[in-house]
Amino acid sequence: MQFENAPDFLQNLPWETYGQVLFVVLIGALLGFFVGRLTYRVLVAAGVDTAVEGMSFERSAQSLGTSTVDLLARLFGWTVFGVAILGAVTVLNLDTALFWRIVVQMVPQVFVAILVLIVGFVVADRAELVVSEHLRGVKLPEVAFLPRIVRYSVLYVAALISLGQIGVATVALLVLLFLYFFGIIVFGVVALWDFLRSGAAGVYLLLEQPYSIGDRIRIGESAGVVQEVDLFVTRVEDDDTEYVVPNRKVLREGVARER
Questions:
Q1: Which of 7, 8, 183, 223 is within CB 3.0–4.6 Å of 218 for a Cys-Cys bond?
Q2: Is the predicted pLDDT of residue 139 greater than 60, yes or no?
Q3: What is the CATH number of the domain that holds 242?
C-alpha cells in the first residue's frame, strides 16, 4: 500500500513502527468501545437517563437522534481513544510541532474521506430502498439479494473514493474497482441465470401471446385462469389458490389452453 500524499516523515518510517502504531490504535479503539458501552450501562443503571428526561439539553440531544447518556458514554469512549492516539504519537517519537504539522496536513484529507463515507452510506441506503420498491412486485427468490448488492456496491465505491482522499495509490483503487465490478457481473449472471431465462421467455410470451388474461390454462401441475402475465412470471388462479409460475417453466413444460 502506497500513500502518495502522506508527509515524507511517515513515508520513511519502517514497517515495524507502522505495526506498533496500528496495534496501539486498535487496542485504544477496542478499549474505547468497551468503555463507552460500560459507561452507557452504568449510567442507565444509575437512572441518569430518567433524571435528565425533559431537560432542554436532553430534548436537543434527542432532536439529533441521540441522548445525554449516549453522549456521555461516547465522550468517555473517545477520551480513551484519544489517549491511544497520544500513545501512538509517543511510539512515533514526534515532537509537538511536528505532530501538529502532520495533523494540519492530514486532517482536511481525513475530513473529506469521512464525509464521502457518510454520503456513501446515505446514498447506499436510498439506493437499496429504491431497488426494493421497484422489485417488490417480482415474486422470485432470485431477485431478493439485488438490493443488497446495490447497497454494498455503492458502499464499496464510496470506500475506494474515501481511501483515495487519504493518499492510497489510485492505480490500485482502479484495479480493485474493475475486479469488483467484474466479479459482480460474473456472480450476477450465475446467480440470476434462471431469472434471465424467465425474462427472455417473458419477452417471447408477451410478443406471441399464446394465452391471455381470462384464459383457462394448465402448466405442469398448475391449472387455473390467467390473472396476469408480466416479463418474469405468469399468475394463474384456481378457486382460492394462486399459482405464480416462472415464464421459463412455461416454455420448458409447455402450456395447455382449455377452450
A1: 223
A2: no
A3: 2.30.30.60
Mean pLDDT rounded to a whole number for the chain: 77
Separation of alpha carbons 248 and 250, rounded Å: 5
Q: Which residue has the cell 484519544?
A: 82
pLDDT at position 55 over 80: no
Tell me which residue of 19, 26, 180 sits closest to 92, measured CA to CA.
19
| Nearest C-alpha neighbor of 88 from the set 29, 32, 24 | 24
Helix or strand (DSSP H, E) at 223: strand 222-229
- Total domains, the chain: 3
Least confident of 9-23, 165-179, 184-198: 9-23
- 3-state percent breakdown (helix, strand, coil) of the chain, nearest 5: 70, 10, 20
Asked if residue 8 has pLDDT above 60, the reply is: no
Cell of 64: 439529533
CATH number, residue 174: 1.10.287.1260
Strand order in the sheet with 216-219: 241-246, 233-238, 222-229, 216-219, 256-258
- Rounded CA gap, 153 and 112, in Å? 20
Q: Rounded to 10 degrees, what is the CA torsion of 120, 126, 127, 130?
A: 180
Report if residue 205 sits inside a domain: no
User: Of 46, 61, 94, which residue sits at a domain end?
Assistant: 94
Which of the two residues, 213 and 169, has the higher pLDDT score? 213
Could you tell me if 132 and 159 are in contact, meaning their C-beta atoms sit under 8 angstroms apart? no
Whole domain around residue 81: which residue ranges? 1-94
